[in-house]
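TICKET: design request
STATUS: open
ATTACHED STRUCTURE:
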């Protein structure tokens, strides 16, 4: 069953992908990029499991909600007839230990952010939010570790944790819970989606300028920068061989430009310089005309 709300890459992750190909990120930004990328891969892994569920459920991938001025994120929310299941998905890899209510890498005393606390906070904010929407269903949340190479030593028995070896059992359980969704569940799912915030306040962008960034198209598959093309209709990535039409690659680049420079006016010249490898401005102009709304006139023309 496809999710009722699909997951997309966060703007921060998209921006870091793009910047990583176009400039030298600081080591702190590189770490942040790797952390977000790894988290996203873990979430996609969990999505692949939940997408196979056959039961009558609403699956909402990635919700960013606000209650009483507090923003909270839920990686996956599953609505069944009688219960709401928020999942905090973690893609930690390697050996960790649980000690006096805290998480540490197995051989280190550098405490990591406690995912159980994150879950507790989400539940504490979700409960009154659901109540405001007229729902008082029980909430059963879990921290879900999805990486098969993750081990938690001294894992507490009484805490809501799903270990990688329990994922199959979890899917089986979700498939078998008695659930028949009604219109009010749909209303709840729709309301939660309408409340989803696309701009998370936790987003941090590195600093950069237009001139500083390397220009070119980024391969949709391997994310490497393409700074030369042979064919002006199809783009073939030299690193991975992925093929894409020029139109689609240019449109992705325009989206990138808008994300990285939200105040920029999209003009043929700007996109021409940004994409770098397209020989004719006419082609850029045609692609923009076909896909965006033209504003202004003559040399002041821009697109929205
Ligand atoms: Zn590639």
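STATUS: resolved
RESOLUTION: sequence designed for all positions
ATTACHED SEQUENCE:
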């Amino acid at each position: 069953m496809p999710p009722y709300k699909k997951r997309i890459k966060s703007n921060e992750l998209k921006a870091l992908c793009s910047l990583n190909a176009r400039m030298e990120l600081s080591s702190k930004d590189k770490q942040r990029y790797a952390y977000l990328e790894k988290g996203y891969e873990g979430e996609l892994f969990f999505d692949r499991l939940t997408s196979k569920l056959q039961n009558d459920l609403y699956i909402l991938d990635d919700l960013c909600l606000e209650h009483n001025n507090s923003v909270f994120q839920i990686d996956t929310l599953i609505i069944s007839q009688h219960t709401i299941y928020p999942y905090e998905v973690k893609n930690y890899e390697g050996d960790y230990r649980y000690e006096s209510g805290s998480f540490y890498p197995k051989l280190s005393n550098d405490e990591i952010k406690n995912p159980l606390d994150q879950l507790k906070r989400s539940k504490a904010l979700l409960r009154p939010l659901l109540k405001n929407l007229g729902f008082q269903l029980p909430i059963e949340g879990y921290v879900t570790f999805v990486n098969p190479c993750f081990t938690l030593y001294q894992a507490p028995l009484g805490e809501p944790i799903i270990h990688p070896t329990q994922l199959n059992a979890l899917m089986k359980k979700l498939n078998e819970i008695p659930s028949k969704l009604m219109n009010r569940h749909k209303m709840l799912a729709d309301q939660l989606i309408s409340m989803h915030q696309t701009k998370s306040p936790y987003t941090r962008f590195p600093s950069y300028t237009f001139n500083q960034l390397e220009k070119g198209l980024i391969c949709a598959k391997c994310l490497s920068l393409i700074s030369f093309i042979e064919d002006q209709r199809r783009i073939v990535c030299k690193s991975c061989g992925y093929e894409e039409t020029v139109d689609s690659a240019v449109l992705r680049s325009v989206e990138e430009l808008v994300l990285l420079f939200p105040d920029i006016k999209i003009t043929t010249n700007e996109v021409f310089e940004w994409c770098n490898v397209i020989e004719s401005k006419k082609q850029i102009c045609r692609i923009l005309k076909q896909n965006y709304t033209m504003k202004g006139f003559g040399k002041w023309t821009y697109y929205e």
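CLOSING REMARK: The mean pLDDT is 94. Residues 219, 221-222, 224, 237, 239-240, 242 surround zinc ion (CB under 6 Å).
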